[in-house]
Amino acid sequence: MLVPLIWFIGSHFDSAVYPATIPISHMTAVQIYRGYVRFVGVGAIATAGIFGIVRSLRVVAGSFAIALRVFRKSEAVTEERTDRDIPMISIFLGVVIGAIGVAMLLGHLAASWSVVAIGLALTLVFSFFFTSVAANAIATTARNPVSGMTMLTIIISCAVLLRFGLSGTTGMFFVMAIAGMVCTALSVSGQAITDLKTGYWLGSTPSAQEKVKFLGVVAAAIVVGLTVVMLARTFQFGEALPGDLRPVLASPQASIMKALVEGFMSHQPIAYLLFGAGAMITVVLEMLGQPSLIFALGMYLPLELNTPALVGGFLSHYLNKRSEKTGGQTGKTIRERGVIIASGLMAGGALGGVLGAAFRLVPGYREDLIKTPFYSNNAVSQIVSALLFVGLCVYVWFGSLKKVSAEKQEQ
To answer: When comparing pLDDT for 184 and 74, which is higher?
Structure first.
């Protein structure tokens, strides 16, 4: 709705309307989306994140109460094995050591100690409050609003640090360092709560899971760091640069974060009107009792990413209805198998992208070596791609129901 609305309002202007750089009358639908609509989506995501923080305040207060009881008693609140966590003093020492590491990192970015102190405070505050939002979102909806929380971190950090005279390239690196650490905290918290939720179902001891999780974080940090370096050597992120022949890797979240940081730290005009429009959409959705974060993500993500997500949503909806209709353990199995199959497809797609990037680093490798005979024929290629996509959807549907058929045969 927003793309044609913006075209209708601004197509008669002969000059560009900020933040776009060309007149709306010369823009395609994709350019209107990139120049205007995604900023509305950013405002909506950020506001939805604020609502999430407000909702999680009760959880945060409860966590403080538990921590205070532990410090007073100097022992675990409960003797139940399945409620036993890492000692609170160990967690506190870990936070202190982590804070020292963050301060050392920020101190190497050519900023004053007052700015480093502000950056450290922003990192700790955002990580503390936003991880509770991420953990609660994962526990209740199985969705982690990492990008929205990270963008809200960027907006607030830029606004604060500009007051302390930080700008330009140094300011960009400084803000992205804060955002990167907060984003990592969000991702780890979401994965940790998923592991703990699974462990609760299986009767595991939380403290044992948490100790192993530290090793997993170290391994993930190494692998993810090397993967990002490999992708950066192989692809351009977001948009093509003049003279750069590397293929472009679509990265909408990274592109919008880059645009936000560059806009703030270069003292360019900020599209507050677009952010405000997105914020008002979120407020209206909250007043209507609708899931504002999911709607905001749908506004923000481009159509090529939204379309398969929409198809997946339909599959999930009808499989859940089938699960409820069947009932009992059989119905529960339908839902669980659907989630497992979909998760496998997501993980496989991500690994496939990394593998494709790795091939490009091999000397003598050319894409011509793996092109299908009909690759250059656009009509045939699109038809084959559509059929394969439909085949995946059929596989998800019947794969989820496979267990049901086997149980009926046994009965």
So the answer is: 184
